[in-house]
Design goal:
alpha+beta; five-stranded antiparallel β-sheet; about 50% helix; globular
Length: about 950
């Protein structure tokens, strides 16, 4: 008898409708086939959930086993799989002799499908040698059945039996070799080859040697097995490796996509030859283009990316083929393909790649298809990266991208602005042409964010006198007539005169008539008279774009316009010798700024001007009024702003370089007693051979490094007190998406505790996996109990429960356990995203949790580090933006959970005159659980934070 029973799925059992044993017996004995099916199904569910019905075993043998109903037979196989087959002494029950006889009869049944189902059932009870031993002769006889379905199932049944009990099939290798030689069905050959390869690999290789030339024309399943055999044989010393390489080359042209993928993967492990690697990569690219399943596309692209990392220069010629994967409609596939293209791009092919991306960009503008805006944004970002990396292509793409500044898709236009801003900073030779193009496209822009970016660029990088005057003239066009308030008042007065009722000159009427058929069949003429007013409505659509934004309440853009005008006027004053002209330009700029403030305080705007924008515009006016008196202010406008942007770009490049270095550098720690491997002495020339046994060990956690003793102690939770009859403590360990509880129970009484049950319950997105088991603990004895809990989200979870046992006179005794609070920080990891992605998610996410700052800390940056440490979040705000001596700090933070949940946070704090820190932390997420959990975490960390010494 095996020491541990097999593990089954816990099935929900409705206890309110559980019939009694007598009712189930009656249904099995006298019911119809439908009643028997329902009764047997309930017995199986109860058995799986730990409530077997041993008294019903004979009733099932007597009334269900003789039935010819195929559904009952199939359900009966499920019951034989889960029912207890051994008695308390570990010996096979006598009733099982009848069961074995019935199984033997089914293995000799004239219906081939009943034979096949029974053979598949034998694989599930392969551990019970006493049951299988009498069935082996009948099982072997099925290898010669006329139907391939039976022979195929018989091969795998024998394979499973041999794997568990080799002595039951001692001649398995000879048996399968003989079977392979005589078999004609492809599926049976495939199963036999798998069996033979696992039992006697040299015999399987010997069979392959006789069919080298026919492998290309084999069935798909057999070809997959041939690839697997080749992989197994090459894992050891073999002389057939050249033949295997040739076979893999031939299988790259197979009709099956699965065979192509396996052949390409195996080929790269057999040889490092450049031609072989290129052929395998070309096959993977073709699969990524032709395969319809997006999940398969992603898997193939991952494999191609791994191949590219090991063979960088060899695959550069396939970059145009990889670009064809962008024709997929799925954005995840496009992003993955684009990341591979960006990593494969070099100076030799950069122009071709950029030309292709430009054509795709124009296609998104000309054609309307699903997710065109997202694809356009991805293309713009990719072109941005290539233009910065390869300066020779920047000039050819920057003008094409600037056509998208008036795009209705705001993120795409913002990406273009970010690209242009970086180009004009890094490539001074392109500045005149770019600024001229930006000036000409100002009238086409509609977004305030785009206007702000473009106005900043023009204010910083327009340095020629003629260009400055051209920009000022274009700004005059996009803002319209000034003063704005006077023009709006005049328009309102003109429209009120037009609206006077007896003004016949502004009203025109038209009458139209057409015949109509009435209900009685006669004709009549219906006349419609329409009145048209010639009133010109002053709507935002007829106003210049920048004027419409200001009247709509976008005074932040107005403040940026004021700063840009100030820079242009200061530079114009330096370049011109015509003082009258310079004075006129300065006066017009100051009038424009004043009119923005005046209209912001009037009734014509949607939202009144805010204090910050008002103060900033007034500062610009004051700077122009003191043009020649305060030179340090001029330096701030003309030099410091550009220097700050250059510093920000340098910080971004430094962070990107550090990230790339961290990904490429691998720390190899070699212990003192480790074996040294000399590559020159190795006979193998394979490229990272796949060890599937090792992979399986990693997947099941067999190769994990054990934690140290101190780390384990920190995870122990005391569940009961020392004075309780039963002392309990639990070691809580996070393992992927599971929580493993190792509970130690100590009987502190001199009595034996019978029917002791540890019953757990959960709050939150936690689910118990095991059903509670009953134990008996000796006086002052110990009992270790393991429990597994599934976690489905990062919502704060609580585990609570009780210990129950039978006391004197059958009274029930109980001890309530302390609650175990699950720390969600084990599921949250720091992550990074761009500013655009952060803002997009901030707008999209609907759940927000606002936590007020209450701390004894006095340093704002220390408090930021404290919050980042307690929440496992990364800071997205650059260090340069937070540098300097300031009592105010605002920072964005981001983290991602193991379940794919995004968590955003914005910290806004201020240091008061008393030295205390006040402010708040706003947390946003797509689900409520993670927002509340992080808020509680911050509140607890503030409570536990110690004041500085």
């Amino acid at each position: 008898m095996p020491t541990e029973g097999p593990c089954y799925t816990v099935v929900f059992e409705d206890n309110t409708e559980t019939p009694s044993t007598q009712e189930l017996r009656s249904a099995l004995e006298k019911g119809s086939d439908e009643d028997k099916l329902e009764a047997l199904r309930k017995i199986i569910v109860a058995t799986i959930n730990g409530n077997p019905q041993p008294t019903l075993l004979m009733a099932i043998i007597q009334y269900i086993m003789p039935s010819k109903n195929k559904q009952l037979k199939k359900l009966l196989h499920f019951y034989w799989e889960v029912c207890p087959k051994y008695d308390e002494n570990g010996k096979l029950k006598q009733e099982m002799i009848l069961v074995v006889n019935a199984i033997r009869n089914d293995l000799q049944h004239p219906n081939e499908y009943i034979r096949g189902a029974t053979l598949r059932f034998l694989q599930k009870i392969s551990r019970d040698a006493e049951l299988l031993e009498p069935l082996i002769p009948t099982l072997r006889a099925n290898l010669e059945h006329r139907h391939s379905y039976v022979r195929r199932a018989a091969v795998f049944a024998l394979h499973t039996v041999h794997r568990e009990h080799t002595s039951l099939v001692p001649d398995a290798a000879e048996l399968m070799q003989t079977f392979l030689a005589a078999e004609s069905d492809a599926s049976c050959k495939r199963n036999a080859l798998v069996f033979l390869a696992n039992v006697a690999l040299p015999r399987a290789v010997e069979w392959l040697r006789g069919v080298w030339d026919g492998i290309v024309s084999m069935d798909e399943g057999l070809q997959m097995t041939v690839v697997e055999v080749a992989r197994m044989d090459c894992a050891r010393e073999t002389t057939h490796q050249p033949k295997y390489i040739r076979v893999m080359f031939e299988l790259l042209g197979a009709t099956s996509h699965a065979v192509k993928y396996e052949a390409a993967t195996t080929l790269t492990t057999l040889t490092q030859n450049a031609a072989a690697v290129k052929a395998a990569a070309s096959c993977l690219v073709t699969l990524a283009i032709k395969e319809s399943d997006n999940n398969v596309k992603l898997i193939v692209l991952d494999r191609l990316d791994a191949l590219r990392e090991r063979h960088r220069r060899i695959l550069d010629g396939l970059i145009m083929d990889v670009l064809q994967v962008l024709s997929s409609a799925d954005m995840e596939v496009r992003r993955k393909a684009m990341s591979i293209v960006l990593s494969m791009t070099s100076g030799r092919n950069a122009e071709d790649v950029v030309l292709f991306l430009k054509k795709q960009l124009l296609r998104t503008q000309e054609q309307d298809f699903d997710k065109a805006s997202e694809y356009r944004q991805l293309l713009i970002q990719s072109i941005h990266v290539l233009a910065i990396r390869f300066p020779e292509v920047a000039a050819s793409v920057v003008h094409a991208l600037m056509d998208f500044l008036g795009d209705s898709n705001n993120p795409s236009a913002l990406d273009v602005v970010a690209f242009v801003r970086e180009v004009v900073e890094k490539f001074p030779a392109l500045r005149p042409a770019i600024t001229e193009k930006l000036t000409n496209t100002l009238m086409n822009m509609r977004s305030g964010k785009v206007f702000r970016g473009v106005l900043w660029i023009l204010g910083e990088y327009v340095e020629e006198l003629d260009a400055i005057e051209m920009v000022l003239g274009e700004i005059r066009r996009i803002i319209g007539e000034i003063p704005i308030l006077a023009a709006e008042l005049r328009d309102e007065e003109g429209s009120s005169q037009i609206d006077e009722p007896h003004d016949e000159g502004n009203v025109s009427g038209t009458g139209t008539g057409r015949p109509r058929v009435l209900a009685d069949g006669t004709y009549a003429t219906e006349t419609a008279y329409s009145v048209t007013s010639t009133r010109t409505e002053s709507s935002k659509t007829t106003k210049p774009p920048l004027r419409a934004l200001i009247l709509g309440g976008d005074f932040f853009t107005g403040a940026v316009l004021a700063a840009a005008l100030t820079k242009l006027v200061l530079r114009h004053d330096k370049l011109t010798s015509n003082k009258s002209k310079a004075n006129s330009v300065r006066a017009e700029a100051m009038l424009t700024m004043t009119s923005i403030i005046r209209v912001g305080q009037s009734k014509f705007v949607t939202v009144p001007i805010d204090e910050d924008s008002n103060e900033r515009i007034l500062g610009c006016i004051q700077s122009l009024s003191e043009l020649h008196d305060r030179r340090e202010v001029n330096e701030i406008f003309l030099e410091d702003s550009r220097a700050a942007y250059a510093q920000m770009l340098g910080a971004q490049e430094k962070r990107a370089a550090e990230k790339k270095a961290a990904e490429t550098v691998k720390e190899n720690v070699i212990q003192v007693d480790d074996l040294l491997t000399f590559r020159q002495f190795s006979k193998k020339s394979v490229d990272e051979a796949v060890d599937y046994v090792e992979d399986l060990g990693k997947a099941t956690g067999a190769g994990e490094v054990l934690e140290d003793f101190i780390s384990n102690l920190s995870r122990i939770s005391q569940l009961t007190g020392f004075s309780d009859p039963v002392y309990a403590e639990a070691y809580v360990k996070m393992h992927g998406f599971d929580i493993l509880l190792d509970v130690l129970l100590v009987n502190q009484t001199p009595n034996t505790l019978q029917n002791l049950c540890l019953d757990f319950a959960t709050l939150g997105d936690l689910k118990l996996v095991e059903r509670p088991t009953v134990y008996t603990i000796a006086p002052h004895g110990f009992q270790s109990i393991k429990a597994t809990i599934k976690v489905s989200s990062t919502e704060t979870g609580v585990i609570f429960g009780s210990i129950l046992w039978d006391g004197p006179n059958l009274t029930e005794c109980c001890v309530i356990l302390n609650d175990i609070h699950i720390d969600i920080m084990d599921y949250i990891k720091p992550a990074y995203c761009s500013e655009t992605q952060f803002r997009s998610m901030w707008t999209e996410f609907e759940w927000e949790n606002r936590v007020n700052v209450s701390t004894k800390m006095t340093d704002t940056r220390e408090y930021l580090k404290h919050v980042m440490k307690s929440t496992n979040m990364s800071c997205l705000t650059p260090e340069g933006a937070m540098s300097g001596d300031c009592d105010f700090l605002s920072a964005n933070m981001y983290a991602r959970s193991l379940f794919g949940e995004d968590a955003l946070a914005n910290l806004s704090i201020e240091k008061t005159e008393t030295g205390a820190i006040v402010g708040h932390v706003r947390i946003r997420s797509k689900t409520q659980g993670i927002a509340l959990s992080l808020g509680d975490r911050i509140t607890m960390s503030q409570r536990d934070a110690k004041p500085p010494l």
